């Protein structure tokens, strides 16, 4: 099966499994798991932040970060196509008493400064208004095709946020894809945000975990919230050990995923009945639509699966394909063959 539904299907490498076997362990709720501490120190260094903390998931990493930044009764500005707004079960409002204000997401994943500006009341002293206490950005942007936020834009948001006196949190689930695509260090991107989270469990191919990084004071708050949310784990070196391998060995190879995604998009663009925008493919995510008189995306997905290609819809009837360490260029060629044949078969039927 060619698995293109998500880069979360990546399996731990042999080296990761060996590292799990050999990990030095302790009770991390007591702060005594040396492998977890090592990973957290390493990430703080890589991202140029004072401290970092290992979390069970990206969802909990975002939730604890938002709760650490935002007082109850304030509002968090999030993209209306962001993972935080769409896929995280409204955690900040349920657990934190924080209101989400959805900001229109531009096709390249940016939130326009003018739209952010509108979320700030003209008379902040007026007790009727909930005040914005955080801006969240997503980089790379999943539902906007894995687009990378330009550094010039990050600088604009930084200046805007500083002017308003609110912090910026970056949901960098795929932060290292952004860094590899731009050819910069991840710390350069993270430098524009007060806090950042990234997933070890996606393209980096570790089995579990996300990490939040920020100031010492902020990470102290996240540490308490992690415990409150049920994310305090014990011999967590089991998770941290493959995480260390992920950072050492799986970052540079993301470039391969990016070139495979481009290969896929270029191939798809040539198949009649498939609509995709090759120029939008910057990282490991490709979106496309089926535009065919007889074939719906539902049928396309079902039939592709029968032929050995696993793929899924992700918003607005678009199909998303995600490349990752389990996919080679030859798998992309095979996937394209499957799609070509499937479309051709339906063309014959509709004649
Ligand atoms: C996957 C993802 C998350 C959530 O991570 P989980 O580990 O699945 O909870 C958050 N934000 C973005 C952009 C993601 O792609």
TrEMBL record:
Keywords linked to the UniProt accession: Pyridoxal phosphate
Residues of the Aromatic amino acid beta-eliminating lyase/threonine aldolase domain: 3-289
Gene3D superfamilies for this protein: Aspartate Aminotransferase, domain 1, Type I PLP-dependent aspartate aminotransferase-like (Major domain)
Entry annotated with the keyword Zinc: no
Matches recorded under SUPFAM superfamilies: PLP-dependent transferases
NCBIfam families in the cross-refs: GntG_guanitoxin
Name used for this protein in its record: Threonine aldolase
Annotated organism of origin: Kroppenstedtia guangzhouensis
């Amino acid at each position: 099966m060619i698995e293109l539904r998500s880069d979360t299907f990546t399996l731990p490498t042999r080296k990761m499994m060996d590292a799990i076997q050999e990990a030095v362990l302790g009770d991390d709720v007591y702060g005594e798991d040396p492998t977890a501490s090592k990973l957290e120190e390493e990430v703080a260094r890589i991202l140029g932040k004072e401290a970092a903390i290992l979390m069970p998931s990206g969802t909990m990493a975002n939730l604890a970060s938002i709760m650490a930044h935002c007082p109850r009764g304030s509002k968090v500005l999030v993209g209306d196509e962001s993972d935080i707004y769409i896929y995280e079960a409204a955690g900040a409002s349920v657990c934190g008493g924080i209101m989400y204000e959805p900001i229109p997401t531009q096709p390249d994943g940016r939130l326009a400064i003018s739209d952010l500006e509108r979320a700030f009341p003209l008379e902040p002293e007026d007790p009727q208004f909930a005040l914005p206490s955080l801006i969240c950005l997503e980089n790379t942007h999943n539902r906007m095709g894995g687009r990378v936020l330009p550094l010039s834009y990050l600088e604009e948001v930084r200046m805007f946020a500083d002017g308003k006196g609110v912090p910026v949190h970056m949901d960098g689930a795929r932060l290292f894809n952004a860094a590899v695509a731009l050819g910069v260090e991840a710390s350069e991107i993270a430098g524009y945000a007060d806090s950042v989270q990234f997933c070890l469990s996606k393209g980096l191919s570790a089995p579990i975990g996300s990490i939040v990084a920020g100031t010492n004071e902020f990470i102290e708050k996240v540490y308490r919230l992690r415990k409150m949310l049920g994310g305090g784990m014990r011999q967590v070196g089991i998770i941290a050990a493959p995480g260390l391998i992920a950072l050492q060995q799986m970052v540079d190879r993301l470039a391969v995923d990016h070139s495979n995604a481009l290969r896929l998009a270029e191939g798809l663009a040539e198949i009649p009945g498939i609509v995709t925008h090759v120029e939008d493919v910057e990282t490991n995510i490709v979106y496309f639509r089926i535009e065919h008189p007889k074939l719906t995306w539902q049928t396309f997905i079902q039939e592709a699966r029968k032929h050995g290609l696993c793929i899924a819809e992700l918003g607005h009837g678009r199909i998303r394909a995600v490349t990752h360490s389990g996919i080679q260029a030859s798998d992309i060629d095979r996937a394209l063959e499957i799609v070509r044949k499937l479309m051709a078969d339906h063309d014959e039927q509709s004649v």
